[in-house]
Structures are given as C-alpha cells and as structure tokens.
C-alpha cells in the first residue's frame, strides 16, 4: 500500500483505511473461524447456553443449508460460465479499451459490475472481476495510471450494493417460492410477487440512485496518478501479456465428435431456454424464484457454448474458482445454527425492530441485515432465520412486506463490502488478497451510509 501523501480528503481517507486493513485483516477462511468463536461466546455469555449445547447447534447448522448452498453455488457457477464465453470476453476486452483515465476506469468497472449483478449476481461478480483485471492489464500496457486495489473493489460493487434487490436476489425470490418457510411458519398467507419487491418503484428507484451515487464515490476515491498502484505491483508481469486461445476443439474419435456436437448440445439447450420462456410467458415475471433462475441461466449458458464438452469444461473451471465458498459455506451455516439455536438472532432482531416506527422501519431493517450479514454472509440463509421477525414486525407497523424485504436486502448487500466471503472468486481472478482491496471496500461501505439511510427512509414505495 502506498504511503505517499497528497490528494483530496476522500482520496486520503481511502488510502489510510486501505493501509490499516492491509495490516490487520485476516484471510477469508480465518475470518469465518474467528466469527465462529465470537458467536459461540455470544451464545454462552448472552443467551446462557452451555458450551456443549452451542457445539450441538453448530453441528446441526453445518448441514442445514445444503439445498440452499447448492442453489447459491449454481447461481455463481452458471454466471461464471456465461461470463467466460468467448463473445462475452470479447465484449469485456472492448469495454476495457474505452477508458483513458484511472478514475474513469474505476467508474466503468463499477457500473458494469452493479448492472450485471442486478441481472444475475454470479455473472456480475465474475464479469466485474474479469473486467477489473482486463482494465488493469490494458492500463498497464497503455501506460494509464489506475489504482488496481480500488479497481478490484469496483468489480465487487455488484455484490456490495445491487445484487440482493435484483433478478437473482435471495430474499425477494424466497418469499415468491411456493411453500417457503414464511408460509410454513404462518408468517405469510401466500406468496409475495416480485412486482412488490424487485420491480416495485421503490426498488427500481433505489437501484438507479445507488448506481449513480456509488459511481460518484468511486470517482472521488480514485487516487491521483502519483499515488496509483497498477496491476504490475500485484500480479506477475509475465501474466499480463495477451493470451488468447484461438485453437479449435480436438476431434480424434467418434466420441469426441459427439462431445463437441452443436446439435446434441443445442437441442437440449434450446429446450431448456424454451421452457424458461414458456414459464415466464404463462406466469409473468412473478415466476422468478431461485430454481427458475438457476434453470434458465444453466441452459442459456449451454446454448451460448452449444458444444457439451466446451460448456462442461467451463463449468468445471467455475467450480474450481468457487472452491473457497464451498469450503466456507458450511462454517457460516454452522454460525447460523449457533445464532438460531441459542436465540442470538432473535434477540438482535427483536432489539432492533422494537425501536422502529413506520417511518424508520426500512432503515432499521437495513441495519439489522447489515449486522447479521457480518456473521452470516448468506442472503437467503439469514433471511430464513431473521426474515420472519422482520416481516412480522413490518406487518404490525403497517409497512408493506415488499418494502421491508427490499430494505433488508440492501443491508445484506451493503456489508459485503466488509465481509470477504463472496469475494473469493474475484480474488482468484484478479490475483489479489482480501487485505489488499478491502480497505477500499470499507471506505465504500462507510461513504454509502448517509445515502442509504436517507434513500431507504424517503424514497416512496
């Protein structure tokens, strides 16, 4: 991290915070382990649970979210595969070449990541990461001074802001999924359609305003050229040359020909995409739920690649890139088990929503989600635990459930800018460590607070 001075107040703030985080932030896996200890102690000291009981809650939670965890991994992997399609890669390369300044490059990456993550957060995360690396690489080759750590956080802004009230947002989709936990518990009488959440005027207005405001903050944070640290200070220069594979598929046997058959892959891909289109044509956008999103993106990806082996190979690469998430997801599920089993989650949620009024409730829901997300970075996983309390309180205060869900989703996404769990694929693609970039993540988190507090409170539903 550069120790040179100069720059505006915002630039100096970002630089100093980055230096502090680089010195103190643990690795993402250690982060999960430390949080496990914190929640364990909280259950023992605050809720009066015995150590053996807390270990039991931990073990029970470890396996409680396997279905949901698989859904989350599929969202990420199917988005990853689409992001690495040659045509998408070509578009990313062209976009990267349109920037001529460090601040402009950061804004470009941030806007693309936020828009793409609203469409599908797995794709947005990978597109943001790939675009950040490509912009950094081209800037190095063209002699443009771009601060690579901030560029990487710009690529993560979709997960840190827009994803959870977008088309693949866990909380809005979960309450629109048949026989969901809210209906099973009697908290809701029926489904809450996405016209009341994702496509409400409240959510759409927040999306536009958030992208504009975050872009301005990214622009202001971008260091002057003399303080910018390019990609070559973090990534081996030998890896920064053009490396485009122009070779076609190897076809040596009839089996190879079948594996690479556009007809074989195209027919089933077309059937899957056609079924998705038919589903939306008959049920409208309210058909969106986690299973439908995953199904649609899997077959859109296969339709793009067409050849079964080509899609399979890209899918396997994506699974490798998500290995850290697969490893850590059970640990965070264990944290959910301890928080839920000990009553910590309900205690926290009840304490926060008890001071809410109809006017302040959206901001309280945002804060509640933000705090819990630090311990449980799983939007849908935490929503299944905390959501019933939030929804019941919203109904008691006369706040629309859709508005409460969106406000909660904003808080869940917001503190991803401090929680490194979902950044693991981005770190692998960009060649960075969590502590290299999350100082700027924290700077974005803090600078977004005034805007989000005001927007959630005063934007009409």
Molecular structure report:
This protein is globular. The model has no long low-confidence stretch (mean pLDDT 88). Helix 4 (66-83) runs parallel beside helix 7 (121-142), helix 4 packs parallel to helix 15 (290-305) and helix 18 (344-353) packs parallel to helix 20. It is an all-alpha fold. The chain contains 23 helices and no strands. The protein has helices at residues 9-24, 28-47, 51-62, 66-83, 86-96, 102-119, 121-142, 148-155, 157-162, 170-174, 181-184, 201-221, 254-259, 262-283, 290-305, 308-321, 323-342, 344-353, 361-375, 379-397, 401-414, 424-430, 434-458. 71% of the residues lie in helices and 0% in strands.
* Average residue pLDDT: 88
Q: From the alpha-carbon coordinates, what is the Rg to the nearest angstrom? A: 22 Å
Order of helices and strands: HHHHHHHHHHHHHHHHHHHHHHH
Q: Tally the helices: what do you get?
A: 23
Protein name: Short-chain fatty acid transporter
Keywords: Membrane, Transmembrane, Transmembrane helix
Transmembrane segments: 29-46, 58-83, 103-132, 144-165, 199-221, 263-281, 287-306, 318-339, 351-376, 437-459
């Amino acid at each position: 991290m550069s120790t040179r001075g100069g720059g505006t107040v915002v630039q100096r703030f970002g630089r100093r915070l980055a230096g502090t985080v680089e010195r103190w932030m643990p690795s993402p896996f250690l982060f999960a382990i430390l949080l496990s200890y914190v929640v364990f102690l909280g259950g023992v000291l605050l809720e009066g649970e015995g150590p053996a009981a807390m270990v039991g809650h931990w073990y029970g939670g470890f396996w409680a979210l396997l279905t949901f965890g698989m859904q989350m991994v599929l969202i990420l992997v199917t988005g990853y595969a689409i992001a690495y399609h040659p045509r998408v890669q070509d578009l990313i390369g062209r976009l990267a070449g349109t920037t001529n300044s460090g601040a402009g490059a950061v804004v470009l990456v941030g806007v693309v990541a936020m828009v793409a993550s609203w469409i599908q957060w797995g794709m947005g995360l990978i597109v943001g990461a790939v675009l950040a690396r490509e912009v950094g690489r081209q800037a190095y080759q063209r002699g443009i001074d771009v601060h690579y750590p901030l560029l990487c956080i710009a690529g993560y802004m979709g997960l840190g802001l827009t994803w959870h009230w977008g088309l693949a947002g866990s909380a809005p989709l979960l309450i629109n999924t048949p026989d969901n936990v809210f209906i099973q518990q009697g908290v809701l009488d029926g489904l809450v359609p996405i016209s009341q959440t994702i496509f409400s005027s409240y959510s759409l207005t927040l999306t536009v305003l958030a992208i504009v405001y975050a872009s301005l903050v990214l622009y202001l944070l971008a260091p002057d050229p003399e303080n910018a640290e390019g990609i070559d200070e973090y990534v081996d220069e030998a890896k920064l040359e053009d490396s485009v594979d122009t070779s076609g598929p190897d076809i040596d046997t009839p089996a190879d020909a079948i594996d690479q058959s556009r007809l074989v892959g195209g027919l089933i891909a077309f059937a899957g995409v056609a079924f998705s289109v038919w589903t939306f044509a008959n049920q409208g956008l309210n058909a969106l739920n986690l299973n439908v999103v995953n199904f649609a993106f899997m077959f859109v990806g296969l339709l793009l690649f067409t050849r079964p082996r080509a899609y399979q190979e890209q899918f396997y690469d994506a699974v490798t890139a998500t290995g850290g998430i697969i490893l850590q997801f059970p640990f965070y599920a264990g944290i959910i088990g301890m928080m839920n089993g000990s009553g910590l989650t309900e205690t926290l949620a009840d304490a926060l929503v008890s001071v809410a009024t109809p006017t302040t409730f959206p901001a309280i829901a945002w804060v509640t989600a933000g705090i819990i997300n630090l311990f449980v970075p799983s939007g849908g996983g935490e929503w299944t635990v905390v959501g019933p309390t939030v929804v019941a309180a919203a109904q008691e205060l006369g706040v629309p459930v859709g508005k409460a869900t969106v406000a909660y989703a904003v808080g869940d996404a917001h503190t991803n800018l401090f929680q490194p769990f979902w950044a693991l694929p981005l770190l692998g693609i960009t060649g960075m460590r969590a502590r290299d970039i999350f100082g700027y993540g924290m700077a974005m988190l803090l600078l977004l607070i005034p805007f989000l507090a005001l927007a959630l409170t005063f934007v009409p539903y």
